[in-house]
Batch of 2 targets.
Target 1
Amino acid sequence: MSPYSATPVLRASGLHVSFGDGAARRAVLRDVSLDLFPGQLALLMGPSGSGKSTLLAVLSGLLAPDAGRVLVDDDGTAVDVWGLSDGGREKFRLRHTGFIFQGYNLFPALNAVQQLEIILKWGHRLGNGEARERADDMLNRLGLAAQKYKKPAQLSGGEKQRVAIGRALVKDPTFIYADEPTSALDWENGQKVIDLLRAAAHARQSSIFVVSHDERMRPYADVIYHLDDGILTVERNTVSLVPAGPSEVSR
Ligand SMILES: Nc1ncnc2c1ncn2[C@@H]1O[C@H](COP(=O)(O)OP(=O)(O)OP(=O)(O)O)[C@@H](O)[C@H]1O
Ligand SMILES: [Mg+2]
């Protein structure tokens, strides 16, 4: 069982999302509610088109729901992500959220160290020395010591994915959202990615939300959700949930 706190860092309730107009309008999320906890790796599985990426986007502040709330803890204050101004939401994302997408989204012109440094310098206002030190340290831990000065075009798929993971982890975010992080990787690199995400959840008390078809993820998850046609169910929860303590978010 993972060491984790019983106070949620995110409480989503009554989420509805539909796409399309008129007769073509289709519900993609139907009354979805879930809590995310620090130190917990939550895995979301489900068939293609069931709404998994849509849910990730709503929770992480990228896509506005038609209805529902996403309460998060912003330095001790409960805020609804979708009640914030665009600027406020952007600031929250920058400070508290790391993303890992399948396409890596690396900057083509920057080498591996610079990909991480830029996050720390621009997003977190760290000085050059500290940003370089933290970027170096993270790349070493990801087994990328020899790849530091390579640009994306000179890296393999697995190496690019590890740089993308480093970029998400280096700022020690409250939340890490990963959409199919292992789908393009072979067994060995997929395993490294899973280990890193789990270590981040448990050691840094980050809350990790992973969308994946990858059956290998299952044993690493603290909780497994299943989404089918926009309906969310809990498939397995290995964490024994005790009633949430008094927190702004849990009220
Ligand atoms: N911006 C959009 N406009 C219209 N329809 C959309 C939009 N985004 C997603 N959809 C539709 O919503 C449904 C859910 O999409 P979503 O990407 O969330 O599925 P998914 O579970 O992540 O699928 P996959 O496993 O293939 O990635 C799909 O039918 C998709 O076509
Ligand atoms: Mg998807």
Note: Residues 19, 28, 46, 48-54 surround adenosine-5'-triphosphate (ligand 1) (CB under 6 Å).
Target 2
Amino acid sequence: MNSTDVYDPLSHQSHEDPYPAYTRLRDEFPLYFIEAHGVWALSRYQDVRDALRDWETFSSAQGVEIGDYVQFFGEGSIQELDPPRHDVLRKVLAPRFQSRRIREYGPLIRETADRLIDGFDGRSRIDLGQEFTQRLPILTILQLLGIPQDDHDWAASAGLEMLRRPAGEAGPSAAAAAIREELVDYSIDQVRRRRVDGMTDDVFSDMAMGVEGGHMLESEIQGLTLLLIAAGMETTSSLMGNIAHVVATGAVDVSALLDDAGEFRAPAIEEFLRFDAPGQWLARVTTRPVTMHGQELPVGSRVLVLFASANRDPREFARADELVLDRDGARNLAFGEGVHFCLGMPLARMEARIGMGRLLSRRPSFALDGEPVRYPSHVIRGFESIPVLVS
Ligand code: HEM
């Protein structure tokens, strides 16, 4: 039997604090039917991990969201494809996102972080969300893609507007859909230019070579680009914003967060990811009947995999509801698992290590100065505004 009101991913309660509901789900309803949306939810670590590993049964090909957001990015988005097409397109992007290549972007990230922090000079009131934790990931992904400097302001605002997913609403606004079209036309044009004028060292050139080599279609530029903008922006900014928020509340000792080189300590990053996963959940659709916890799911059932709940499962993690900064949290599911495992993990980790390292080295002391504002999203958990007073 199901209770109807334990958990609704679109509710304001889930937006504010989903964790009490996750505890109830794991303990009482490990396979839970959310009547309001006609979807199921898996909340225990093992179930989430097993489902993510079994892409043949739990398919991404019908979209990984719910409501009208399903397949929002469109053709080419590898997140919404199963193998074999998924693997072919992922290979177009993969070389640039490997740890070794990504390390080459370290100086650029440091420079961008320092420029943003220079912008705080002479002021004690700063919005760390608007001015730092959101800006650094956006500027980084725009540079990786190869978007020219002059277009950064436009592209950053367009990306943010496209991603506005208000809690409680099951579909994108007309404005978000219109901006998405602008971004798509712009990206196709950028790739065409590289094919005509010559390749440069960026993701648009990787795609241009992918098209020329017959590995991808021009129509697939859309999904790949929009996915990279979305995945590159809001998740990493949520990770950094969640860290900044905890620091601003005075809950942690800043000196314990940095290593000797002034970078944010790697295990602490993993623990913040475990404790408050930037991507709370995504969906899959079953391709065959599955029986779990005594319940049969028919073919075509949409199932939410709750990464954030899995990461707080006491069956897997001791003191699961506590932030334990030196915990070995590497096996948490914040970056997913299986064929869709996060392509941007090395980049996200490096941005957080360098970015938060620079921020806390140069401005080690700040406190909340007003109400922080969460992202208007039911999937992403992070802050768009974190007003602080720097001392
Ligand atoms: C802290 C930051 C990040 C978190 C928590 C995160 C989380 C995730 C998760 C959970 C998935 C799996 C999706 C699924 O199973 O359906 C994923 C996939 C993906 N992520 Fe990330 N991500 C982060 C940063 C990034 C960055 C910086 C990029 C690149 C610019 C990126 C690019 C991608 C891509 C392209 C995929 C799809 C991979 C595929 O379907 O094969 N992510 N990410």
Note: Residues 12-390 form a domain with the Cytochrome p450 fold (CATH 1.10.630.10).
